[in-house]
Write a structure and sequence with these properties.
alpha+beta, 19% helix, two-stranded antiparallel ribbon, 7 strands, SH3 type barrels
Length: 108
């Protein structure tokens, strides 16, 4: 009996620790901590594809949030003024290859 209880207890504790230390995905399925631009310069476009006009440029480490995807393209909102000069709150599309999930920091 002892050999059955210990593994079950260990699994329960481990899942609680992991759940408490890792952020849950947002309801949309995207990283709730946002995304960082990973390319030196990337176009923020009016639609999901290169055939759409560029609104301007995002620069490496600009912060964006993602609310939906269309194929390989993410619909993003700038979390703050971009290094390329775009205003905070600007909305557009960027290819998913040029952004990476931000690391969430948990402060207790």
């Amino acid at each position: 009996m002892r050999s059955l209880i210990f593994p079950a207890l260990a699994a329960t504790l481990l899942s609680a620790v992991v759940a408490g230390s890792a952020p849950a995905l947002a309801a949309s399925g995207f990283n709730p901590c946002g995304y960082d631009v990973s390319a030196d310069t990337v176009n923020l476009r009016t639609g999901a594809g290169t055939r759409f006009a560029s609104l301007g440029h995002l620069r490496k480490d600009d912060d964006v949030t993602v609310d939906r995807a269309s194929g390989d393209w993410y619909h993003v909102t700038l979390a703050e003024k971009s290094r390329g000069g775009l205003a905070e709150g600007t909305v557009g599309w960027v290819h998913k290859d040029y952004v990476k999930p931000s690391v969430c920091m948990r402060l207790d």
